[in-house]
Design goal:
465 residues
Length: 465
């Protein structure tokens, strides 16, 4: 049997990013729910609520859903309409195929002034004489009943005949309540008999199970003869009981629905016992070997890229994490020689090509792609263990390597022989240029005014400056 839990609501609210306080639509159908609870406290903003095909026996804990517009409670065990006065905006109510026998309980819906559609088909009250006229006259705000539009003439006629119809409905309700009480007693009696029979079968099977095998003197276990035939007979008997259960006529009551569910659960458990199906527990993934060597593991099967940034002296890991996955489901662990990322409990581990500094590493996530970028600075000096080796055991390659290292450590200077090269003459760095002869054009010779024989001095002309 199921119950309404916070985890169940979150799993059915993925369209709202698993946020339940602002949820406007919720579907909890076919969850074997027996009781309505917690929804009015956790989901105050609900507008649409689907609860069809469950085992709910009473309408309760929904009066605080002030914004609720559509409530679907079809295929449940409801016997009375109640506790819906607080749903002020309720416009559509579906109670198809329930066990409502008190038709007068529809009067509680008179406070829901916005109610336009009501479905009551498949209930015992729908077989009453004058059922439709009684509902149409009682709920004058209704526009549709059982998928059929209510005409104005139909409502006027129902209001005129309402006193007679109400009396008929009351008499049929009393008869139904008496019959319902007898059905309840009969169902309780059958339930007690079944429990007694199960207790007897359990004690009988325990008594037979005291010596199921015979033990030989050598300590070997030997099965009794005909045991395989006993198992086949038991299976045949179970099949006969199952066939008899489904062929047995039953009443249309909430108890018969619960009995059917119990039988199906029992059949499923017996099948699991016979088949011996057990969930195999996967062994934990080996991430580090016994000798301390880290392994490369990609259990979440994510694409990644590893980049060696020589400019900033760091290693960058770009892990293609799912874009819409919550960051709280990611755990990053950076070690000097490897990095480990847990994605929804699945490990991703990668051995690094160089030693890094975990305390200076950083992890960021892209808001556009959702990728996880881990920046790991390299260690400046790698501390490696050294081994003492004898001089005779050194190989030619090791000796040549040592020679090159010593040559690189030695500082070589460039020497210049002063005898081969003379010092430059500073005094004659800038050489004097010798003037080259140039041809000079003959300019016209200017003759003074006093020497010109044709010059006439006119005192009236002002002197030229």
């Amino acid at each position: 049997m199921g119950r309404i839990t916070e985890d169940l609501i979150r799993r059915n609210s993925e369209h709202n990013d698993c946020v339940i306080f602002s949820l406007e639509e919720l579907s909890l159908h076919q969850q074997e729910i027996e009781r309505l609870e917690h929804i009015d406290k956790w989901c105050r903003d609900l507008k649409i609520l689907y609860l069809q095909n469950n085992l709910i026996g009473k309408i309760e804990n929904v009066s605080k859903l002030k914004k609720l517009e559509y409530l679907n409670l079809a295929l449940n065990n409801i016997e009375k309409i109640e506790n819906l006065e607080g749903c002020e905006r309720l416009t559509k109510l579906d109670l198809t195929v329930n066990f409502i026998g008190e038709l007068s309980s529809v009067k509680t819906l008179q406070h829901n002034i916005h109610l336009k559609e009501l479905f009551l088909m498949g209930n015992p009250c729908a077989d009453f004489d004058g059922y439709r006229q009684f509902v149409v006259a009682t709920l004058q705000q209704l526009k549709w009943l059982d998928g059929k539009e209510i005409e104005r003439s139909e409502r006027i006629q129902a209001l005129q005949n309402f006193p007679v119809i109400e009396q008929q409905v009351r008499e049929q309700e009393e008869a139904y309540c008496l019959k319902r009480a007898q059905d309840k007693e009969e169902a309780q009696r059958k339930l007690r008999e079944e429990e007694e029979n199960e207790a007897k079968e359990r004690s009988h099977s325990d008594f037979e199970g005291l010596s199921p095998f015979s033990v030989e003197s050598e300590g070997h276990v030997q099965a009794p003869e005909g045991q395989e035939g006993g198992y086949s007979q038991k299976n045949f008997k179970d099949n006969e009981d199952d066939l008899a259960f489904w062929n047995k006529p039953s009443l249309f009551t909430p108890e018969s629905r619960l009995e059917t569910l119990r039988h199906m659960e029992k059949q499923r458990k017996d099948q699991e016992k016979l088949s011996g199906k057990k969930k195999k527990v996967k062994p934990p993934r080996v991430l580090i070997t016994e000798d301390g060597k880290a392994l490369n593991v990609n259990e979440p099967k994510l694409d990644f890229s590893l980049k060696d940034d020589e400019k900033h002296n760091e290693i960058i890991l770009d892990l293609a994490v799912y874009r819409y996955m919550d960051t709280s489901l990611i755990d990053v662990d950076v070690q000097p020689t490897y990095v480990r990322v847990m994605v929804k409990g699945k490990p991703f581990q990668l051995v690094l090509p160089a030693e890094v500094r975990p305390d200076s590493s950083s992890a960021k996530r892209s808001q556009t792609t959702g990728h996880l970028v881990i920046c790991m600075p390299k260690v400046d000096e790698v501390i490696a263990g050294w081994r003492q080796t004898s001089g005779s055991g050194t190989s030619p390659s090791d000796s040549s390597r040592e020679r090159t290292n010593q040559r690189s450590k030695r500082i070589e200077k460039l020497e210049v022989d002063p005898g081969k090269h003379s010092f430059p003459d500073v005094a004659h760095i800038v050489q004097e240029k010798t003037p080259t002869p140039q041809r000079v054009r003959s300019e016209p010779k200017i003759i003074a005014s006093g020497e010109d024989p044709d010059f006439e001095d006119n005192p009236e002309v002002p002197p030229l400056i």
